[in-house]
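FAQ: What does the model actually see?

It sees only this:
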Amino acid sequence: MSKNVVARVGVTDAAAALIRKLQAAHGALLFHQSGGCCDGSSPMCYPRGDFMVSHKDVFLGVIADCPVYIDADQFAYWAHTHLTIDAVEGRGGGFSLESPEGYRFLTRSRVFTDEEAAILKDMGAPPRGDEVDAEGAPLQTA
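And it is asked to produce this:
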């Protein structure tokens, strides 16, 4: 019997195309949903290894072969929403890789349905950044 699963994060075709372009230039990437301050609430794209993921980050899922994380404090506010990473024309701020391309990543959100929320509750809390490997797969514990 299969277990129902609800994705916490998705990607638009436009963002997936931009991600593929960035992967060709920079190799393996990851996303971190910024919590504010200097970067607003923009999804930030980094080469894997350039952003240190920790127990203070929550793993949301994988889009276009890129793991996506969010700060645990920010996740507390957004836990009830599905996040979709999109790409739009314009320059964003910060250090995200797409800045020189004339596009910026943007997070769109919608509230989970009651059915999705019930499934998410059954799924339990998402793993923390130190509980998954660089591709987002759960680490094996001894």
